[in-house]
Amino acid sequence: MNKTQRRALFTLSISIVLIAFGVMVFNSMFAPGDRTAGVRLVKVWMWVILAISAGGAVFVHLKRRTPEVDNDERDRYIKKNAILVSFISLWILLFISSLIPGFIAGDMGSIPVDLLPIMNMGVFLIAMLVYSVAVLFQYGREVKGESNE
Amino acid sequence: MNRYQKLAWFNIIVIVATIVITTAGIAIEIRWRGYSTIAPWFFVAILLLLRLKPYLFWKPESEGGVVSDERDSLIVQKAASFAYKTFWFVLLFSSFAVHVFKGGRGSVPVITLPLMACGGALFMMIMCSVSILVQYSQGNKGEQS
Q1: Is-contact B137 B8, C-beta < 8 A?
Q2: How many structural domains is chain B composed of?
Q3: Which of A88, A90, A108, A145 could covalently link to A127 via disulfide, CB atoms 3.0 to 4.6 Å apart?
Q4: Tens-digit pLDDT profile for residues A114-134
Q5: For chain A, what is the largest distance between any 2 Cα atoms, rounded to a whole number of angstroms?
Q6: CA-nearest residue of chain B to A47?
Q7: What is the pLDDT of residue B26?
């Protein structure tokens, strides 16, 4: 398993964990009872998620400054394809996430402000997940017996 | 000035013109009529100019008509990467900023979501174009692309 695959696996696992947290937070917003508890939970989790994402971005940036010896043309091609797939999925997700609240609340309706970071963070995490899956899928499709070590 | 620089300038001019004309149109219409229905269509109409790019900046298909080299590809690739990262940062930061300024119990109109996505797309194009122009301006002086 090379560096790109390890990085994709790391991103995949972090994305899945954070999406699970996001679903928890989303559920807590519509839990019966006092909504304040849910809002407080939203705030706490959103800052945690933002901190983890920012920390992850800084970590990846610092790691990228070290020379990558196991990065060849094929790796770059795989990453380029994965970014393209992730980019297309981003716009599909943004389009869907813009339409759904309109159908639920009506064109002149409004949504809780807590939903905004949850939705955009959710789209971000799903785009990351798509990127990681695309990278791993492309490596998985390569000729059997070839080693990336 | 090569093809990518011309494209970048074209993007910036069209997008900035779209934002300025639409904003002015909406402001004038609201002042006169109290509501705005016509001016938002300026947004779509002017942005359609971006579809003219393949015709305005066509690639020469003759044998000697080279339009870009490795350096140009690298510059465009870096610009796209920078624009994508900046887009995410701004989108997420603006979501949190709205959350902080409006308070936890506030609400936003549904139209905010498509507007944010649309604004994000325009922002990404502007950042990509600016990044392309900045990278070319940092190149060797006197170079003819």
Answers
A1: no
A2: 1
A3: A90
A4: 788 888 888 888 998 999 999
A5: 58
A6: B96
A7: 80
Which tokens belong to B134? 């900045």
Instruction: Give tens-digit pLDDT for A58-97.
Output: 776 776 665 555 667 788 888 888 889 999 999 999 888 8
Which residue do the tokens 């899956």 mark? A133
Interface residues of chain A, partner chain B, Cβ below 8 Å = 35-36, 39-40, 42-43, 46, 50, 53, 83, 87, 91, 94-95, 97-98, 101-102, 105-114, 116-117, 119-121, 124
Print the domain residue range for A18. 3-140
- Is residue B142 in some structural domain? no
Residues B110-133, mean pLDDT to the nearest whole number: 88
CA separation for the pair A39, A112 (Å, rounded): 10
Asked whether residue B144 is domain-assigned, the answer is no
Quote the minimal CA–CA distance from A39 to chain B in Å. Answer: 6
Position A145 in a domain:
no
The model's pTM is: 0.74
Query: What whole-number distance in Å separates Cα of residue A88 and Cα of residue B92?
Result: 18
Residue B143 resides in a domain: no
> Does the pLDDT value for residue A20 go beyond 70?
yes
Task: Give yes or no for residue A50 having a pLDDT over 80.
Answer: no
Q: H or E segment at A98? A: helix A73-105
Residue B16, domain extent? 3-137
Where do the DSSP E strands lie in A2-97?
Answer: none
Asked if residue A108 lies in contact with residue A52, where contact means CB atoms within 8 angstroms, the answer is no
